[in-house]
Amino acid sequence: MTVPTTMKAAIVTAYGGPEVVEIQSRPVPIPRDDEILIKTIATTVNSGDARMRALDAPQGMKTLMRLAIGIIRPRQPIFGTEIAGTVVAAGPGVSRFAIGDEVIAFPGVGLRCHAEYVAVSERKPIAKRPENLSFEEAAGLCFGGTTALHFLRKANLKAGEHILVIGASGAVGSAMVQLAKHFSAKVTAVASAANANLALSLGADAFIDYAITDYTSTASAYDVIADTVGATRFQRCLKALKPGGRYLGIAGGVGDMLARPKDGKRPIAGMATEHPEDVAFLADLAAKGQYRVVIDQTFDFDDIAQAHARVDSKHKRGSVVVRMPQ
């Protein structure tokens, strides 16, 4: 298979709105010894991409965010954390994958997925694409799913426990609902009324419309509260947590990170870690029909700025997918 020397990539030229995202030409990366080169068929624009582009950090974390990703502009201008595509080249040390394999890859914080070609170490989270998933669905498997898995494990969610998922219609929230049910928990989903049917179809046992009901007002209702969208804080949820309850501040700020346990209840916040076995686990569940990737909209690559705008709207359901020209 002939690989070109240049490719299209979406470049974030400065911090700001979707208009700072431009399509530019870049050299195609040359895979190193342990890397595969993937021709991207589909990728996503997720909430992490949008937050980095807009420098939209949780409370108290904007300076830390600049130090991490770039003071004036992003050090890595090609965003994107997950892709689905085809292996078109491989370094001499690669043994797990071969040219022609259709794969899902999750470089995660390494980014670079908003491009026609991506080089990824075979030791990173990569799995074969399940045949029952389209490339668009495969592209949306990792970001929400691995984040949900990380926090559910941190919470040590047990069978029979009751979890409240705030933001249950988003990429992380829709994954959290499904995975909590997979682990035999009772799930109450929180979202807008328009997303009730979606949440229930994903396995939620009950649904709360946040515009009507204060989900923090019921005393000792939940073993775990998972806030996937930064809608609340640990202190506000204390009443609703059972003794020994855990609050997951998935989009939390410094306050949740520094908050101390109280009355046996504790906050869990911070960044999710990336593990190859998590992507393999999600791909296996999807292959068995036990995990569903929710797709909000699919955009052409040349319209990736519109995909960013859709994420900024805060009304997306699941993942916003971008399809590359083939």
TrEMBL record:
Cross-referenced Gene3D superfamilies: Medium-chain alcohol dehydrogenases, catalytic domain (3.90.180.10), NAD(P)-binding Rossmann-like Domain (3.40.50.720)
Residues annotated as domain Enoyl reductase (ER): 16-322
Cross-referenced InterPro entries: ADH-like_N (IPR013154), Chloroplast_QOR (IPR052733), ER (IPR020843), GroES-like_sf (IPR011032), NAD(P)-bd_dom_sf (IPR036291)
Membrane-traversing stretches: none
Protein name: NAD(P)-dependent alcohol dehydrogenase
Provenance organism: Pelagibacterium flavum
